[in-house]
Amino acid sequence: MEPATRQLVYVTRNPSPELSSRFRDRGWHVDVVESARDVRRAVRAGSTAGGLLDLASRFQPHEIVTFESCLTMPNVGWVAATTAGQLQDASLRRLVRDYCFDYVTMPWTGERVVDSVGHAFGMVELGEPASNESTTGAEGEMVGSCDAMLALFRSIRKVAMTDAPVFISGESGTGKELTAVAIHERSARRNAPFVPINCGAIPPHLLQSELFGYERGAFTGANQRKIGRVEAANGGTLFLDEIGDLPLESQASLLRFLQEGKVERLGGHQSIPVDVRIISATHVDMQTAMIEGRFRQDLYHRLCVLQIDEPPLRARGKDIELLARHMLERFRKDASRRLRGFSPDAIAALHNYSWPGNVRELINRVRRAIVMSEGRAITARDLELSEYVEIVPVSLAQAREAAERQAIELALLRHRGRLGDAAQELGISRVTLYRLLCAHGMRHMEGDLGHQGGDLPASVPHL
Ligand SMILES: Nc1ncnc2c1ncn2[C@@H]1O[C@H](COP(=O)(O)OP(=O)(O)OP(=O)(O)O)[C@@H](O)[C@H]1O
Ligand SMILES: [Mg+2]
Fold it and tell me: From which residue to which does the signal peptide run (predicted)?
């Protein structure tokens, strides 16, 4: 017995009562529509539907192209019904090839059509869960499920409970700013301002006045009083981004502020008490900066009471794929055609590449690939990572590690994350397997692998 909730969007000028009743008998709810606008109205947001596009029912070519926007809807599995003659038309062939799971040509049997649409519906349900908040990925959400990211999420929650200064270090594009915002939003200061300042981007001679503000007449051109960023953050969080690039003279004034909790505007004589929580971040190696005398040790120790390290993307194991799929969901509307996901060579390249630009680079590559891709799946070439499809490990130790990782991954996928069964197949104890999972940062693979073959899980793990 088929579930009674499946929806069929039947696009036609000439509905077949016989076909509609056959669908109903198989548990479908049938909506007969004629235009692209009706399709968009009929398909309920967030739920999956089957679509039958009856091109043989007196639609003109200029009308058919208007359906292209509906054919890209991620939650509808389409089947086209055409005449053999219509398929001579190149643009119609392209439409069918790019967007439909299947097509039937006249004379078709009702049974064949119902089966095909059922299959298309099933494919959409399998591969691309109906979009909801967590899969479409609200901007600002931190996605991650590897051990390193789970540890990061725990740290964020813990440091959010306190008022102590936090120092975030990590390579470029790893998510330092996202982390700072996450801490603020989970802290008691969440309703007060979060004020970022990029210490590296402001010319050194303007930095003092940006940070602390000035009084009217403090210098030529100071026509009115200006509140500095530190004061603007009163009650909230001040995010000192790229703190490693802060010039030495500003370091002295910042240290004074941290010691006294008061600011003095340039040209002012008053000390104004300010209550801010300080979060700072940098990709600079601070130990070297201190040894070389570019950064004051006393300031560093004030700023770095609690430390958070952002893991580089290359150390996040399966998360690389998770993030790539997440970004594809978020930006798939930019695609000119319906994209099914990533090809196996793209997945291999995602893992082999070393990601110097980390998550930011991943986002850019996926976005570019979405626009440039000419097939149904994003390939390594679309990601401009063709040369990373096959990487020969440089040392024997690396080769062993990669083989061990792959064997574990495959065993877990085959046994849907069940440790006992996977361990048995690998000929090791459960305890050893667990230890290896920890060592490879693969603990997220344990347990609920409901999505073999790996499309986006129903709910993306996130903070
Ligand atoms: N875990 C994550 N999940 C989803 N998006 C992420 C994640 N980490 C980072 N991003 C995204 O990657 C981009 C870069 O993040 P962010 O600006 O926080 O990095 P950063 O470490 O401050 O980079 P930089 O050193 O270049 O300033 C942003 O678009 C951010 O939303
Ligand atoms: Mg940043």
Answer: none
